[in-house]
Amino acid sequence: MSVVGYTRVSTQDQNLNSQSDALRAAGAEFIYSDKLTGKNAARPGLVECMKFLRRGDTLLVYSTDRLGRSMTDVVTIVADLGERGVEFKSLTEPFDTTTPGGELFFHICAAFAQMNGRIISDRTRAGLASARARGRLGGRPSVMTAERVAVARRMRAEKATWATIAHTLQVGASSVRRALADDADQHESKEAR
């Protein structure tokens, strides 16, 4: 059973020494490091650290913000470690899954992170519904302008393939299909009357 440390700073000119010294003093035998911003998911040091960790090991960090950019990120990583039988400990916060109190604290934080995610999702849905009620649609504007739709209709009536139409209009074939699907839906509803 090993204690494995992970350190991170956001830029190349920052120094990892204070974190490394604190982790070694707390018992870290191996230390993996990154000099990258936390929002970068592709952190080679963290990837190698995760590969190295085995059941019974403990991942040690100076603080949770070194591990992830948000509490949701940290909770996800720590939950994954827990499933693998790896403990987690932060030196500056009461995150310590090796103790009952620390494990309880982690579960409380995980519940808050999950609740926060749901609140954000609910707010997003409410905002989109409000925008739709005012006639605005979310998402990127369609590349299929009225002129492109007219050209696509003519070409399709002349039996051009989807790929040919898309190439001519310099758009994706799926954009052409979606734009002309509205025509097909309207045609079917007229026939049903």
Return residue spans where pLDDT drops below 50 for at least 5 consecutive residues.
187-193
Number of domains: 2
Counting DSSP H or I runs of 4 or more residues, the number of helices is 8
| Amino-to-carboxy terminus distance | 74 Å
Strand line-up across the major sheet: 2-1-3-4
* Main sheet attributes: strand count, strand direction, barrel closure: 4 strands, parallel
CATH architecture assignment name of the largest domain: 3-Layer(aba) Sandwich
Q: In terms of structural class, how would the helical and strand content be classed? A: alpha/beta
Query: Helix amount, in percent?
Result: 55-70%
Number of strands: 4
Q: CATH homologous superfamily of the largest domain, by name?
A: Resolvase, N-terminal catalytic domain
CATH topology of the largest domain: Rossmann fold
Per DSSP, what share of the residues sits in E-state strands of 2 or more residues?
A: 5-15%
Overall pLDDT: 83
CATH C-level category of the largest domain: Alpha Beta
| CA gyration radius, whole angstroms | 26 Å
Helix and strand sequence? EHEHEHHEHHHH
The dominant shape is: elongated
Q: What's the quick description here?
A:
The protein has 193 residues and is an alpha/beta fold.
Short key terms for the protein model shown above:
2 domains; 8 helices; Rossmann fold; disordered C terminus; 193 residues; single chain; DNA-binding; four-stranded parallel β-sheet; alpha/beta
Overview of this structure, please?
- Residues 2-135 form the Resolvase/invertase-type recombinase catalytic domain.
- Keywords: DNA integration, DNA recombination, DNA-binding.
- It holds the Pfam family Resolvase.
- Belongs to the site-specific recombinase resolvase family.
- This is Recombinase family protein.
- The chain has 193 residues and is α/β, with parallel strands linked by helices.
- It has two domains: 3-112, Rossmann fold (3-Layer(aba) Sandwich); 146-186.
- It has eight helices and four strands, in the order βαβαβααβαααα.
- It has helices at 17-25, 44-52, 64-67, 71-83, 100-133, 146-157, 162-169, 173-192, and strands at residues 3-9, 30-35, 58-61, 87-90.
- A four-stranded parallel beta sheet has the order 2-1-3-4, sandwiched between helices.
- β1 (3-9), α1 and β2 (30-35) form a beta-alpha-beta unit.
- The longest helix has 34 residues, at 100-133.
- It starts with a strand and ends with a helix.
